[in-house]
Amino acid sequence: MTFDGVHELIKIKDLFPDARLILRIQSNERHKAKHNFNTKCGCHRNHSKELLAQAWEMKLNVVGISFHVGSLPDDAECFASTIADAHFVFQIGQSLGFNMTILDIGGGFPGIDDDGGKFEKIADVVNKSLDLYFPVSQGVRIIAEPGRYLITSAVTLAVNIIGKRIVRQNFKKKNQNGTTHLSLSPLNCNASHDKGRDSNMTHDIRRTDDDIRNNESLVYMYYVNDGVYGTLANVMTDSVVIQHKVLYREAQPDADASPKKPSIIWGPSCDSLDCVVPDCNLPDLKVGEWLYFCNMGAYTLCLATDFNGIERPLVFPVCSKHYWNQMYPEGSPMLYLPYV
Description:
By secondary structure, this protein is an alpha/beta fold. It has helices at 6-15, 48-57, 77-96, 118-133, 147-151, 199-212, 234-237, 321-327; strands at residues 2-3, 20-24, 33-35, 61-66, 71-73, 102-104, 141-143, 157-174, 180-186, 218-224, 244-247, 260-266, 275-283, 290-293. Mean pLDDT is 83; it is low at 189-207. The chain has 2 domains: 2-151, Alpha-Beta Barrel (TIM Barrel); 155-309, Lyase, Ornithine Decarboxylase, Chain A, domain 1 (Beta Barrel), CATH 2.40.37.10. 25% of the residues lie in helices and 24% in strands.
């Protein structure tokens, strides 16, 4: 059970005095992360002696130290400096008489290596620091919380195009922070309303489509059936740039070779914040076609809501035959999961 303040110790003493406790410390403040947990959790290393002494006086059992460098840290060295801080606090605990046997190095491990071997670099830094400060001979149990690392690549999200608009781009500029702003106006159709069901109306609409296909001032806006209030929540929480792909049927093997158009991918809600990809290039797609996004396992479906009455997507577990047979070499369990 973790604690990082005296009020937690008071509760534990009252409710579960025999608990084995782990002091959570802040990560080293020299480093930054996309989601910095220091503002909410953790005891500063300079205050750890006072807190550990309080736990000793209350006859509580502190057995280790934990930390979390933050989600998506800027550099791997944050692990080295925070492991050094943990060792400093470890020694304080031992000097007070605690039997310190556990170090929890938390999470912060990336789910994909999008910048060239990032996980391998973190692993190298962590292993060298542990060898230096917590060698195997000390018998300290090392645990970690690699949630993002384990689950990110395990999920692929498929979305259906449920709506489409083509609008004229009046201007496009970027602010100092890189945010793109578009001024868009609806594209008028040459067909007039008073033609009613006249066949010429269909002809005029078709001719208008042909005329605009190569117009570079146009933006193709696609509305899909999942968005930032659903599975694509990581667009807002992680400011992640979603890598989108078009799912083509076998009957369209050359569809990806068609000219790309400036495009925006919107979620299904009525909120203008529900923008999945604000600036991309896609072929001219039709309503009913599919897009898909890889690496959608972390902080996505678990954060999804039913905002605007839009239901969460269905989940289809799939496992390759190779890995299925590795997990269950003696035959499939009672739970049936399809494999490919």
